Amino acid sequence: MENGNGETSNNNNNNARLAIMELANMISVPMSLNAIIKLKVADAIWEGGSNAPLSPAEILAKIRPQGGGDAENLQRILRMLTSYRVFEEHVVDDGSQRRYSLTEVGKTLVTDENGLSHGLYVLQHHQDALMRVWTMVHETVNDSSSDPFVKVYGEQPYSYYGKNPEMNSLMFNAMSGVSMPFMKVMLERYDGFEGVKTLVDVGGSVGDCLKMILEKHPSIELGINFDLPKVVEKAPQIPRIKHVGGDMLDYIPKGDAIFMKWILAIFTEDECKQIMKSCYNALPEKGKFIICDPVLPHHTDDSKRTRALLEIDIYGMAIYRAQGKHRTEEEYRQLGRAAGFTDCKGVYIDHFFTILEFYK
Questions:
Q1: CA trace torsion 70, 76, 77, 78 (10° rounding)
Q2: Element (H, E) at 122
Q3: Mean pLDDT of all residues in 204-210
Q4: Domains detected in the chain
Q5: How far apart are CA 261 and CA 158, in angstroms?
Q6: What percent of the chain clears pLDDT 90, i.e. is strictly above it?
Q7: What does the alpha-carbon distance between residue 22 and residue 297 come to, in Å, rounded to a whole number?
Q8: Residue 222: its H or E element
Q9: Nearest 5°: CA angle at 280, between 276 and 281?
């Protein structure tokens, strides 16, 4: 209850102003993450698993063995990211020195034996070319018939990436850095590939995910990796995998199960219906269509999960397709029914990705 001095009202106003100031300055977070990743700070602290708290000067000595650099500015970045639980701060009693170790969040930035991490995903999202597109988000409201990326560069992002090998490589590695940890969890906890003899991976790139599935399920006799011809022509030969080039808007190869990971969000409603209808036609009776996507929650709240999912939806809208979108489970169910599938079951084994099974 407000007292006579309006103290409650003042507190509410102060909190509101603080909230909008935080939102206004939010760009400091991803840009500081970019800096930390480019400087390889997480690897310097982790150092084979020690994760020993280091001072900014000690970190600087590891990432710049040739000398130089500004430890004070590094500390400023580390402090800010500590407030977002990327780092753990260890302060000496008198406050004269601060040291930093990695939290569980920070550990996702450590590169693995294949040189992958979630750090590549952060860098992919904030490249110079994409930052120019972000200034056009309002145009998705003014005119969604033209995509922001096209308005800036005159072509679709995948076409643009194809002409820029460094961007293309970063995109590929960023997606691998996010996908591989999920695929490991999926293969441990999901049994939906049991009994499948021929599995089609639509949009499977060079076959990495399909290879993991086949290694886990030796009963699958044939895996068909289906993607654009220019993509699969670069794919390596993999036992039990056949690479097929084509366009999913035209047809889908036949199999007794079809797998699709993080594909449909860049397509419009009509395009999704067309693709799902092609999947339906490519399956036998009792065949199964398996989608693995970030599925939006039905209700909006301020949880990390909801924010992460709604944020990736805006990213897709701004960078890829103004009329493409991530969807709720019910929205996917309705698309499936329009394509002929009788029902859809959600399998929630991950906080970000959801598995949806559609049945004929």
A1: 100
A2: helix 119-125
A3: 93
A4: 4-108 (1.10.10.10), 179-359 (3.40.50.150)
A5: 17
A6: 88
A7: 25
A8: strand 222-227
A9: 120
